[in-house]
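Researcher: I'd like a candidate sequence for this fold, 236 residues long. If you have to choose between options at a position, lean toward the conservative one.
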């Protein structure tokens, strides 16, 4: 049953205080996702980069049929698209595959080839930020797999937050998870994982902006390496 509650900053703050108090990471994630689904129904969606099916698995357990948004930028590795198809075929979710307004060829015609090398902020805006904003306008709450331990810029991530830019509630059910928590859950539940991790990639985004990392290197160091950019803009 969906309970109609208006998403407000105060509601996000109260929910965060409640769910942040749950110590077990799996119980915490399932509880907050269940609440999101019960409260906002089809107006709640999660996003997934298809690096793995962890968040989609938890969301599907908590709220079967949950909408999972994938930003199909046109620049993904074949392995990522295969992981998307794997996840959507084995988990009880509804895939929402979002493509930018322009194909890569159309973007090249307007802005020149390899915009990602010359102006990655504009490229991310056109292929990720704007399509996500347009898609999320049909929802009142959204969730992502951001974790505090992924980077210093994510260290203060709340379980439930107010997304002031979009005036929505933002859920980060994995905020408190460690890499050990992730590895344990993935192994216990045979979660689909992007095969690129086995080739040394630590964090997976678009192919032109992602490289493998050396052992012990920051997993996100392979994203936009050498371009002074650490985030695509959808979480900031
Ligand atoms: Fe463009 Fe790279 Fe951003 Fe993908 S990650 S949208 S290729 S700049």
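Model: Candidate sequence:
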């Amino acid at each position: 049953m969906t309970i109609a509650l208006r998403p407000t900053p105060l509601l996000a703050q109260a929910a965060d205080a409640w769910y942040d108090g749950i110590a077990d990471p799996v119980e915490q994630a399932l509880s907050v996702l269940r609440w999101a689904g019960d409260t906002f129904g089809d107006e709640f969606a999660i996003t997934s980069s298809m690096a793995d099916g962890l968040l989609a698995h938890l969301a599907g357990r908590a709220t079967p049929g949950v909408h999972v948004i994938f930003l199909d930028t046109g620049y993904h590795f074949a392995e990522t698209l295969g992981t998307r198809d794997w996840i959507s075929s084995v988990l009880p979710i509804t895939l929402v595959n979002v493509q930018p307004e322009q194909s890569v060829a159309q973007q090249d015609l307007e802005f020149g080839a390899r915009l990602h090398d010359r102006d990655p902020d504009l490229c991310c805006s056109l292929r990720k930020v704007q399509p996500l904003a347009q898609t999320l306008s049909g929802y009142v709450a959204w969730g992502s797999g951001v974790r505090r331990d992924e980077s210093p810029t994510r260290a203060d991530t709340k379980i439930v937050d107010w997304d002031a830019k979009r005036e929505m509630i933002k859920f980060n059910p994995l905020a408190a998870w460690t890499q050990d928590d992730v590895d344990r859950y993935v192994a216990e539940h045979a979660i689909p994982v992007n095969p690129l991790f086995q080739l040394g990639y630590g964090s997976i985004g678009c192919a032109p902006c992602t490289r493998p990392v050396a052992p012990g290197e920051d997993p996100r160091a392979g994203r936009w390496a050498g371009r002074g950019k650490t985030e695509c803009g959808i979480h900031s």
